[in-house]
Structure formats: C-alpha cells, structure tokens
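Continuing the batch. This is chain 6 of the set; chains 1 through 5 are on the previous pages. Same settings as before, nothing changed between runs. Recording input and output for traceability.
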Amino acid sequence: MSAPYERPTLAPSLYPYAEGLRERDPDGLPPRGGHPLPDTARPPSRGNSALRYREACAAVTDVLLPFLDAPDPARAAVEAERALAATGVREQAVFAAAAAVEPPPEPGARARVRSFARHLVRTGTTVLGVAAGLGLLSRLGEPEDVPYLRVLGLLDGLVNSVDEALAPLDPSAAALVWLIGRIRGDDLRGLVDALAADDRAAVRDQLVSLPARARGMGPEVARRVAEAVGLAGLLRADPDHPGLLVSAVHLLARMTSSRDYHAEITRYAEAVDLYGTVAAHAYRLPRDVDHRARLLTLALDLHSGPSHLLPWPPGRREALHRTLLDTAAWPGEAPADPDGRRRAEWIRRTARQLRAAPADPPRFRIEVAVADPGDPDVVETRILIDGRPLVPEAFGAGPGDSPEQLLDSGALRAAPEPREVRLAEAYCTEGCCGALYVTVRREGEHVVWSEWRRPHGAAGRPDLPTYRFDAAAYDAEVARAEQDHGWTWPARRTARLIAAGLRDQPDLITRWGLRQGWISTDFREPDTTLVTFTGPPLGRRGRNTAEGEPRQFLWRLPDDGTLPEARAAETLRLLAEGDPRVYAERS
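Output for chain 6:
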C-alpha cells in the first residue's frame, strides 16, 4: 500500500517523462523551446498570478524554508510541491527564490537540503516543483546531478532553469542544453546535431565549416557555441589547424559585440585563455582584410571595451593588445571592392587611434569607438576612469551613448549648475532595461561626478562612488575629445557638420513646419548620411496637409566623393532655399 504522503494522482514525474521522450527518438532534437510538458505539469491558476515578482519570490521562500531541514526529504518534496502549486506563482519566480536560499553551513544540513532538492528534480510532477529543486541545486549540485539536469533540459519551460543550475557544474553541458532549446537555423543545425551526438570529430568539422555570416550568430550564441564545443581546449590542443583558428577569432570577436543585453565576453570563463592562444598564433591567419579587421576588433575591446575587465594577470592584457594591434596592421593599398576598401580604411583609422592613446592612462579619458564596418554596430563614446572602461563595469546592458549626444552637444562640459547626463542606454531601450546617468558639476578646482542613477536597477553591478577630477585636466580632455575627428569617415563627418549647422540655425528646419530628428549615418550603409525630420506630408500644391499624424522623413545623402565640408554646406543651402520634403522619403 502506498504511504499517505505519496503522490495520489497518475501525473507523470517530469524526469522519467523526459527520459522516455529521449529514448523514443535518441537521434532527434526537441522542437524549439523543448518538448511540450504533460497537461498535469502546470497547476491551475490560483488567482495569485498578479503578484509582483518580489512578492512572488517571497511567497515561494515562505513555502520552501520549513521543508529544507525535514527528516524525510521524499515526503517533504511531495508536500512542498503541493504547497507551491497553491501559491499560483510562475516557475521563473520559483527558481529565482530557490536559487537565492542560502545553503546551511553545516555539512549534514546541506546534505538534507541537497537530498530534498534531488527528490524535487527527479520525482517532481509539476514544473513548479522541479524548478524549486533546480534552484536549490544551482548552489548545491554535484557532478552526479548532471545527467538528470541534461534530460530535464529537453522540456519546455525548464530550459532556462536547467541552464542556470547546470552551468556551475558543467558549462559545456549547460551551453548544449541552451543551444538545443533555442537554435533551429540551418547554419547551426549541423553543429548542434554533432554536439548532441557527442561526435567530437564531427563537432570540429561542423565548427570550422560555419559560414562567416551564420544566421543567428549573435554574441550570446557565439559564447554558447564556444562553451559547448570547448573552444579554448580545442584550439590549445591543435593551434596549427587553420580553420579552427579562424573560427576561434570569429567567435571571440562576436562575443565582444555590444548588440546584446550583456557583454558576453565577460561571461565566458575561458576568455583569457582563448585570447592568449589566439594572439600567439594570429600570425598564421590569412593576411586579408577580413581577418585583420577581426583581430583589430579584439585589440580595440582589450583597450577600452568589456574585454579590458577580464581577470588579467599584470601586464598580460597590454602584451596581447600590442600583439593583436601589430598583427592587424594594414600595410598596402585598400582592396578594390567597396566593402573591403571601407574596412581597410577603418583598420587604418582605428589602429592610428589605438597607437596614439597614452601609454599611462590619465585619471579621465574619453574615446570614441567605431566597430568594424563588416559587422555593423553603434558608434559609442567610451569613458575611461583610471584606465578602466566605465560603462561595461558600471552598467553593462548596452553601449555608451554616441559622440553626437555626449560630445557634439557639449553634454560633458562642467558648469557650476549641476546637470544630469545620460552616459549609456540599454541595448533594447531605456524603458525596458535601463540606462546610466550621472550628475556633473563644477566645484572650484574640481569637476565632480556624483548622484549616479540606473533606472530599472543595477543587479550585480558595483555601487558607484563620487569621482572628483582636476578641473583643468577635465576641461582639456573634454575639449580634446570634442575636437578629435580622427575616428570619423566622410559620411559621418558630413552628418556632424549638418547637425552643427542646424544647431546654429534651427529655423532652417522649423520654417517648413518640421521638427529635426536624428542626423547620422545609415546603420547598414555607413557611407550614406541620413537626415531625419518629422512633420505633416505635403499636399498636392506643396502645402502642409492638415490630416493625419506627423510623418517621419528620411533624406539620404550617399557619399559622392565631395568633401564633407562642401557637402554639408550644400545641404544647409538647400534647406534654406526649399522644403526638404521634396528630397526626402517617408519612413
């Protein structure tokens, strides 16, 4: 007869359910997101779904704590699962609350909590119970838990929790669970199949055959691929393999991109090791513009990007930076094709900037970073304090704001009247994941940065102190950065000159009943200046229409070889003489 605390329903435990699915199709992958859960795995709503996240986590903590030291972990797991179902909260809050529980220091008590967690993971019938066990194992798991976690990672609703619980135990296995649950593009499918089959020879073959522009190869995917294949170890074991070195440089450069919600390079545990192996063998790479541009991308990130913040031994980062910079140098004529010529010019400009940077970093430094045109990204203003990049360390959810916003506007100039300045915005938007603000003011012989503000929180980021800079040195650095045009290219220089002209003569736009928008270069076509403005459409007789909402207009000015000063002057003259909607297109 069953004990009274045993599960009274026929609801399947999720681990055996997932194991059965895998055994029925051992060579197949689950659908994107994972296999569907059985109908019984999600308890019916109990009316608490509107709880705020912190309230939901607190409710879960209140449920779990009494069971952690129970003498019978199996019985406690059944009763805890029932109690969790009664809370009505979602599995994300359950996992987070369980992961935040501080394990007891006494070995016997830790063993009881671990046993309780394992019962939830291995016998739980609901996603809430299993998520609670996974959260506890994220801090208490041991190697014997890895096979169970990998199987549960095949199920919808558990991929993220399994990933977080598995990462401290086996980063490669965690990355594979994530890739299996997320990736379905043809470019990466062969690699994921080889990883799932544990065919190491096929893994290497698939890795080196990945297209240079593999669809979906964003920064996080690049990190997960590197973790899943054990990239640092692969390259260290066979550094002479040309295709493997090319793949390593590609993935490492992708991890440095700011086009994601985190700086993925700082989340890659073997980044320092991989950087060292890549730099030591970079001279073996083909001497073409593509490989040199990627090496320079790495040098730039080591200098002033998130890679600067990795745990470097003294002097190691500087040595690797010099090696990569020297190897990436472009000595000859630019390629004939437009894309190659654009990238070669970027290599020359960026290498010149990096070589001109002071060897001994000053207290306060401003630099503008332009990404490889072959892998378009934002142009960002990087603030370095005592040589360390501020934004990735203090914020990390997105790049620094553009030089047009921070330098051309004079936003960083200090005055006696305090002024709040936004230094960075999240990759998505400020309204979604926040931004980084500071208040700048002049106090006698100092400029003070204080009253930091990070909307939407700064989980895992250090508290920021008040910084005091020598006012004369600060003013000189801001003036230098504002006058430094070495990072620009003709179309961007044209855009900045047009924007400066409109700051001096705003009526050139407003006289036509229009409002100025952003003026920059096209993200995908960097040799095209883009002037935007909003206002009503033109009617048939060239007059403003009174109907409908204002429209955005885009005026494209492709680089035609005219000097930026002349091109900007001509654009301002046209604005003075006629309605720009005649030239522009509606977005």
